[in-house]
Amino acid sequence: MNRLPVFLKYQRIIKKLDLKDVSACANLSINYLKKIERGDRNIRDIYTLDKLAKGYGVKTITLVNIVLE
To answer: How many domains does the chain have?
Structure first.
């Protein structure tokens, strides 16, 4: 499976969150990325997202390794 289009899709979400450095997003949870995409969460910065993801107990992954289920 070609991962580049998936990466670019989530990169657009990251840009919407005003995150300037993709490497700073390495530990974002794919579950929360999906929720942001659907508009389920009002998350404005990486710190809020990271805190929510850790509090929720979801496994974090590296963005470049995202594969759609």
So the answer is: 1
